[in-house]
Amino acid sequence: MIASENTPLAALPLPPKPTGLPFLRSSLQFARGPIDFFVSMYQTYGPAFSLQAFDFNLTVMLGAKANRAILIEHADKLSAREGYSLLLGVMDDALLVSDGAHHARQRRLIQPAFHSRRIESYFEIMREVTLRQMATWRDGDVIDIYAEARRMTLEIVVRALLGVDIRDQLDTMADTITHTFDYVTQPASRKLFKIDLPFHPYGRSLRARRQLDEMLYGLIRDKRQQLSQKNIASDDVLSWLIEATDDDSETGDGTRLSDSSIRDQVLLLIYAGHDTSTCSIAWALQLLAQHPDVAARLYAEQTQVLNGRALLMPDLKAMPYLDSVVDEVLRLYPAVWIGMRGVTQDFVFDGKRIPAGSKVMYSPGASHRLPEVFKNPADFDPERFSATNKLKIPPFAYVPFGGGARTCIGMTFAQVELRVMLTELMAHFNFELVSNRRVPMHYNPTLAPAHGAIKLRVRKR
Ligand code: HEM
Known about the structure:
Blueprint lengths: L19 H13 L1 H12 L2 E6 L2 E6 L2 H10 L4 E2 H4 L16 H11 L5 H19 L7 E3 H18 L7 H15 L16 H28 L8 H7 L15 H32 L1 H15 L13 H13 L6 E5 L3 E3 L2 E3 L4 E4 L1 H4 L43 H18 E5 L7 E2 L5 E2 L5 E6 L1
Parallel strand pairs: 2-8
Antiparallel strand pairs: 1-2, 3-5, 4-12, 5-8, 6-7, 9-12, 10-11
Helix pairs in contact: 1-2, 6-7, 6-15, 7-11, 8-9, 9-11, 10-11, 11-13, 11-15
Bound molecules: protoporphyrin IX containing FE.
């Protein structure tokens, strides 16, 4: 049936889905690598197609129009809470899993932490942490850049946003977060057997959750005590959350947020605020080690701008090639490679009815690899984002930070952090491959290197 503007909604076809042999083939392809699989499905079925297997039933929507439809046009018919329902239980009252007026109110409360003046004040923390961690490396060392970056980004986000230094707890916090999120984001079919023993993923996740909660509630307790003794001014997100009331909501009666709500928001900020940047830094350095010509050009640019002196925040504006490299890293490896929503009201996309009650997904990971938009999509080519070339990229084709009312709240934070860290790392070291083998991607939940490691040799400059 060919749909026209007057076709009643209920008469429109649903998005196509593979069945029979193609279904079996696509299940295998999916298991091998969902991003390549999504791109091949797009080429066969068009910008919206459905997938169904066991507990898994959703419509994947790809490309600039699809991203725009989900992030802007039909955002009011979509629920992130339903989309990210797997996270409920780990966090029930955080930005990512709230909708509508409640979401808007939470964003208003947290947003001031990301204003440009505050980001300037985080700049020194970002630099200092990077320099200190790098000082532990010796010429010729083989380092796991993923693990190193994780320590740096975790310390940065906790110090910058929560105003606390948890240097001695960094590794425990990072591990408990990983075990907690890795487990909950597995599909239900992999969580059928819940065995509460330390070697079983379920048991490990329970222990991780308990330990993580102890740390998070400990941070809240300490900050509340400092605030009540007027030892500190409330100048960080944690203090604002502790002191916030629901006065500005419609039913607000001036009550404070519960400790569990504060914990949920803090956990999301810590998790989203370090895991994403860790992946991005690790992939960036792997790509730079694979492309010494790009690394050399990046180094030449910073040498020319800095001329031997320390990096200052305004310098970042004078490094256009660094911008292009970061943009290209986030095209190939957008840490948040999918965004999920539950459909609360039917809507039409590409002549198909996307029914209420189903789930939809947009995917920066797959949309960034559509060959009709990004020629030779698997190639690392920062020139795509040169001042003139990037104007040719259609709006919403490139969405590493999402868009609309749910655009990543930490976008500027991350943009500055990636630039500061890369500049300092490149200024002091050259990064070399220790193996020519391709590092496979791990897709759950963020786009990380498989087995959580990227090994590189560091050479002092
Ligand atoms: C390279 C680094 C990062 C990338 C690629 C990234 C990407 C994204 C994307 C795509 C979304 C939207 C998800 C959706 O539409 O469902 C998002 C949301 C979010 N991000 Fe980031 N992010 C990064 C860094 C950060 C940082 C540094 C923070 C905090 C310090 C942060 C905090 C958040 C939060 C709280 C949300 C939820 C926003 C909402 O639902 O209103 N992110 N991020």
